[in-house]
Write a structure and sequence with these properties.
Layout lengths: L1 H17 L3 E5 L29 H6 L1 H17 L4 H11 L5 E4 L5 H5 L4 E3 L2 E8 L5 E3 H11 L13 E5 L8 H13 L2 E5 L11 H7 L3 E6 L11 E4 L2 H13 L1
Parallel strand pairs: 1-2, 1-7, 2-3, 7-8, 8-9
Antiparallel strand pairs: 4-5, 4-6
Helix pairs in contact: 1-9, 4-9
Length: 253
Amino acid sequence: MHQDLDGKIQKLVELVKQSSKCVVLTGAGVSTESGIPDFRGPNGTWKKYDPELSTASSFVLKPHQFWFLAMQFAGPLMRAEPNPTHQALAELEKLGHITCIITQNIDGLHQKAGSQNVIELHGTAWRAVCVNCGKKFPWQYVMDQMVPMCSLVPRCMWCGHILKPDATLFFEEIPQQLYQQCLDQLEHCDLLLVVGSTLLVEPSGSFPEMIKKQGKKVAIINLEKTWFDENSDIVIHGKASEILTKIIQEIKK
């Protein structure tokens, strides 16, 4: 089994080296080692909370309840630091082996680790946006409102309407501009490396199939199986941090 893993790592190293434009797609599994729980895993967020509470309709109908849940997520998100997976991906970019990271995560840890070209497909937790006038505010503005007043929802200082996290909620459409940025990157890439994603969330869950139909390579690093494993060029099941650290070591040899 160990030899098999080493063989897969060597094969992935060669794919990365041969690639002229490798795009990485990352999911919640990338940030679990930073103390941010994933959603669907054994200890995932939806084992503790009803996922319905984080939908766009819940935000509209029950903003107080929505923001109460959001504040439960805020602590771990704000305290989180990049882990070896984020650092390895940033290093691969510096070495010229990665041209872009498309992330489903809203924690900003790729940028914190030093990655430069990051598309936050689902937005960011570090800002809030007014649902009326579109003005954006840093997270500290939200905290300054929420902490002293506890039960109130944060409101825009300009028009007084409710703020929402500047992130895409469940059943909310991803901004077309962001999606188009992803398509532009994927159109010109020759290798898509999926890291820490179950590929169950659309539209990014379909990116591997899109790439393969164009005759390009797909590699997956994830703890659990994904629906696209059998169609991928390489699949490595394991901790992304350990696998990517080994990949960096091999590339630097």
